[in-house]
User: Which sequence fits this backbone?
C-alpha cells in the first residue's frame, strides 16, 4: 500500500476538475450559439441555480431542512425591485442590496431556526413563507400586492449593455453572477468552516463534544444562504422587471427543494443540474401539455429518490466509481 | 487541586433518581475507573460532567473553575474531552477529515470560510500524526462508515485527543469490540499521555484492573465505595452487590 500524504489527499479532494471547466465554458457558449431563442429561459435557469446552490448550503452541507427558503428569494426580489421602482435601477448595486437585505432577514430568522429540528424546523420555515406572502399582500402600497410589483426599470449593465426582450444581456449578467456565487460557495464548502458544517450535519452531538458551537456555525451558514437566495431573487426581478407574490410562496420553496433533491444534495453541481433539468422539463412538457406537466416531475422525483437516493449526480458518481474501482467495496447506509 | 471534581451532584428524572449526592475527585494524571451494574448511572454521571445533562443541584469543577453553568462545547474548550459508549462519529467523512476538523476547531480556525482546508497544514499534520499514533494512518482516507468496529472505537479516542483534553472521560472504550481487535485499543489507552487525567467506565474487569489506579463503584446513582483496585477487589460490600452477589435481590 502506498503511504498516504494527508495534505495532498485533502488538496486533491478540492481540486478543480476538467469537467468543471468544460461545464462553465459550455454554459457560456451553448445558449448563445445554439439556443438564442431560449436566452430568457437560460437566464431564468441561471438565477434558479443560484437559489438552488443557496439551498444546498443549508440542506446538503449543514443539514438544515427548509421548506420556506423562497422567503429570502422573495425578500431579495422585492428589495431590488422596490429600489429600482423608486429610482435606482443600477443592476449590480441593486442585486447586492437585495442580497444584503435578505441576508439580514436571514440572520434574524436564524436565531429561531437553529433552536429547532426535524418536523418543527419544517413547520417554522413553512410558516415563515406563509407569513411573508400575507405580509407582502397586505402591504400592497409598497409591493403591489396580488397585482405584482410593477415599474421596475433596470439600467444598462456597466452603463453599456441594455437589458432587452431577447435576453442577451440578461443571460450574461445572470450567468456571471451564478459563476461568482458558485466560486464563493465552492470555496466555502472546501474551507475549515465547510468541513465543520458537514460534521454538524453528520452528528451534532459529537461536534458539541469536540468543542464546536453548533448554533453559531449554523446561524452563519443560514445567513450566507439567505443572502445568496436574496441575490437570486434580486437578479430575477431585475431581468424580468417584475416581482409577484409567488416569488415568496410555498410553491417556489417546494420546487427549489425538488430541484436540489433531483440533482443531488451536498455537491453544488447537483443544485445546478437539478435547476437545468427541472426548468427545461417544465418548458418542454408544459409546451406539450400545460396542465399535467407536474405528473412527469412527480414521476421523475419518485424514480430518482427510489433508485438514486443521492440524486442524479450522486447516482452518476456512484456508477463512475463502480466502473473505476473493484466491485467489492461496501455499500453505504448499512 | 483536582483535575476534575464533582460536589454533591443530584439529578432525577421524575421520581427516578439517577445521581444521588455524587462527589468524586479526580487528581491530576489519575486513571480512575467507574464501575457498577447496568443502570447505576455511570453514563449519566459523565453526561452531568460534560454538560450534556444539567444537574438539579451540586457543581462540577474543572481544575479550580466551576463549570456547572457552561455549555458542553465551552467545557471542551477548557479541556474536558469525552468518548461515547456507542460509536458517535461522522459516518460519511474520513478519519482524516474528522480529526482535522476537531483540531481546526481547537485552533480557532473552524469559522474560516474563505481559505481552503488544505492550507491548514499544521492541523492536517497534527491530525495525521494522531491517527498514526493510534494506528489508523493506513485507513484514514476511507469513509468512517467503511471502517471496522474496532477502528471506529480507536477513532473515538483520536477525536477526543484532538481536543487536547486535560481530563478525558471514556465511556466504555472497549464496548462491543471483538477480542481480535482489543489489543490495539488496550495499547491506545495505555499510551494516553500521562498528564491527562482519565475517568473511564468499563465492564471489562480485565481492563479495569490493568489500568485503574483508583475505582469508584456506583450503585443506583450513589457512590457505594471508593478505593484502590486492591481494596475494591476485596471489599465485601462490592462483592455482594456487584462482583459476585447473584443471590442479592
Assistant:
Amino acid at each position: 500500500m502506498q503511504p498516504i500524504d494527508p495534505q495532498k489527499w485533502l488538496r486533491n479532494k478540492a481540486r478543480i476538475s476538467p469537467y468543471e471547466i468544460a461545464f462553465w465554458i459550455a454554459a457560456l457558449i451553448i445558449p448563445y450559439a445554439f439556443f438564442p431563442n431560449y436566452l430568457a429561459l437560460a437566464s431564468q435557469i441561471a438565477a434558479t441555480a443560484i437559489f438552488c446552490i443557496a439551498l444546498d448550503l443549508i440542506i446538503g452541507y449543514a443539514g438544515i431542512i427548509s421548506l420556506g427558503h423562497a422567503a429570502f428569494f422573495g425578500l431579495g426580489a422585492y428589495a431590488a425591485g422596490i429600489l429600482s421602482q423608486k429610482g435606482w435601477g443600477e443592476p449590480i448595486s441593486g442585486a447586492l442590496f437585495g442580497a444584503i437585505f435578505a441576508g439580514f432577514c436571514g440572520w434574524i430568522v436564524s436565531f429561531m431556526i437553529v433552536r429547532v429540528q426535524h418536523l418543527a424546523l419544517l413547520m417554522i420555515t413553512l410558516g415563515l413563507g406563509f407569513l411573508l406572502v400575507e405580509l407582502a399582500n397586505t402591504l400592497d402600497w409598497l409591493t403591489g400586492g396580488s397585482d405584482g410589483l410593477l415599474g421596475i426599470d433596470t439600467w444598462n449593465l456597466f452603463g453599456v449593455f441594455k437589458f432587452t426582450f431577447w435576453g442577451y444581456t440578461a443571460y450574461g449578467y445572470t450567468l456571471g453572477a451564478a459563476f461568482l456565487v458558485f466560486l464563493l460557495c465552492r470555496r466555502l464548502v472546501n474551507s475549515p468552516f465547510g468541513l465543520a458544517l458537514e460534521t454538524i450535519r453528520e452528528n451534532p452531538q459529537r461536534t458539541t463534544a469536540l468543542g464546536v458551537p453548533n448554533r453559531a456555525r449554523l446561524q452563519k451558514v443560514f445567513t450566507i444562504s439567505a443572502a445568496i437566495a436574496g441575490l437570486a431573487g434580486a437578479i430575477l426581478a431585475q431581468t424580468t422587471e417584475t416581482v409577484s407574490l409567488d416569488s415568496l410562496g410555498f410553491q417556489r420553496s417546494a420546487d427549489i427543494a425538488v430541484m436540489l433533491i433531483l440533482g443531488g444534495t451536498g455537491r453544488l453541481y447537483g443544485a445546478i443540474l437539478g435547476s437545468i433539468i427541472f426548468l427545461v422539463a417544465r418548458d418542454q412538457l408544459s409546451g406539450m401539455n400545460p396542465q399535467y406537466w407536474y405528473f412527469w416531475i412527480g414521476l421523475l422525483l419518485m424514480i430518482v429518490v427510489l433508485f438514486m437516493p443521492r440524486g442524479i449526480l450522486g447516482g452518476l458518481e456512484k456508477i463512475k466509481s463502480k466502473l473505476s474501482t473493484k466491485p467489492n467495496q461496501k455499500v453505504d447506509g448499512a | 487541586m483536582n483535575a476534575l471534581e464533582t460536589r454533591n451532584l443530584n439529578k432525577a428524572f421524575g421520581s427516578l433518581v439517577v445521581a444521588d449526592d455524587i462527589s468524586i475527585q479526580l487528581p491530576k494524571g489519575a486513571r480512575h475507573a467507574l464501575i457498577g451494574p447496568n443502570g447505576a448511572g455511570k453514563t449519566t454521571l459523565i453526561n452531568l460532567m460534560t454538560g450534556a445533562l444539567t444537574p438539579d443541584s451540586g457543581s462540577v469543577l474543572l481544575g479550580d473553575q466551576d463549570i456547572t453553568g457552561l455549555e458542553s462545547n465551552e467545557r471542551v474548550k477548557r479541556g474536558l474531552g469525552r468518548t461515547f459508549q456507542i460509536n458517535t462519529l461522522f459516518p460519511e467523512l474520513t478519519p482524516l477529515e474528522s480529526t482535522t476538523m476537531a483540531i481546526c476547531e481547537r485552533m480557532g480556525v473552524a469559522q474560516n470560510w474563505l481559505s481552503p482546508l488544505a492550507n491548514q497544514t499544521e492541523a492536517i499534520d497534527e491530525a495525521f500524526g494522531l491517527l498514526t499514533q493510534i494506528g489508523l494512518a493506513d485507513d484514514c482516507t476511507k469513509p468512517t462508515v467503511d471502517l471496522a468496529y474496532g477502528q471506529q472505537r480507536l477513532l473515538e479516542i483520536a477525536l477526543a485527543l484532538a481536543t487536547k483534553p486535560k481530563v478525558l472521560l471514556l465511556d466504555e472504550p472497549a464496548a462491543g469490540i471483538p477480542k481480535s481487535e482489543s489489543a490495539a485499543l488496550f495499547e491506545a489507552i495505555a499510551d494516553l499521555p500521562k498528564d491527562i487525567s482519565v475517568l473511564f467506565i468499563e465492564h471489562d474487569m480485565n481492563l479495569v484492573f490493568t489500568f485503574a489506579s483508583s475505582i469508584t463503584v456506583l450503585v443506583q446513582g450513589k457512590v457505594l465505595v471508593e478505593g484502590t483496585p486492591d481494596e475494591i477487589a476485596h471489599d465485601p460490600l462490592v462483592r455482594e452487590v456487584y462482583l459476585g452477589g447473584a443471590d442479592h435481590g
In short: Chain B touches chain A through 54 residues (CB under 8 Å). Chain B has a mean pLDDT of 90. Strands of chain B lie at 4-13, 16-26, 31-35, 57-62, 65-66, 80-82, 167-171, 197-201, 214-219, 222-227. Chain B has one domain: 4-243.
